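Handoff note, outgoing to incoming analyst
You'll be picking up this chain. Sequence as last confirmed:
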Amino acid sequence: MSSPFRSVNAGAVPSAIPIPQELLAEPFTIEQAASMGVNRKVLRGRRFRSLFRGVYVSTCVEVTLRTWIMAALLVLPGDAVVSHLTALRLWGFDARRSDELEFSTNTHAVTALPGIRLHRRQGRLKPQERGGLPVTGPDRTFVDCASRLSLIQLVQVAEHLIHTGATTFDRLVSYCLARHLHGVRRARRAMAFVVPGSESPMETLVRLMLVFARLPCPEPNVWIVDGAGRRVARVDLLYARHKVIVEYDGWQHERNSAQRQRDRERREVLEALGYRLIVVTDADLRTPRSIPWRVHAALAARGYAGPRPVTSDVWDRWFTRNV
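Most recent structure output, in case you need it:
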């Protein structure tokens, strides 16, 4: 089912009568339009489209997620704030497409608006502003999403929020320990696997594939230096003791010849310094069980004597589902 809250390209529509500028930029209510001399007949014409009952927007406006949120806030309780998975999208992480826009309120209001989910909260809401919209803070958003996302996704979310500067590792841990909110236990469990310094969800996914297969945890985003102490390459995941590098490459088929040449030269420099490079591509993610075994083989060839990977059917389904 496609989401009703899809983006819609703007289209210039000639106007027969002057329309106030305030009605051409953002969503508005019928009452607001009437106060500016624009009646319902005009709103039902080609120059406007209805987003919710009683809420319109000019067809000159590109309808985005932000537009839908602004429209909903016009008819929700005055204290409503963007929350849960919708808030997570505003914090820059689209965990999964949802057909709902989610908000929280301290009131007992209910809504019959299609595609709107209104959560009633007992504790005082402490919204922050994100792009001019009231939104739950990053720490609260993380906990609110904990009951809706997998452990893998939660770790990805936490590391994204930390990497983007929305919060810090210590602040997120403290928040989870101090609160007794729905989902906080899952949030605490996820924090046990969070590694500050991770910079992309796919990098996090590959690292967790290794950790949950009972391999050692590699260090993320490390600069490799040569014998003179000069930085030669920054790598995704590093087993420094065994000089094994693991990198996720999601752009393998989109590089031009010059980029491929630079990649080859980089790899040769790393190999000359004694490093073994394991590259994980999107194609590899379709058969994820092979990944920890490839890494284990590289580690074992360089003296690693730890346990072999454990990649059960449960592990396989878990990571296949999260790719």
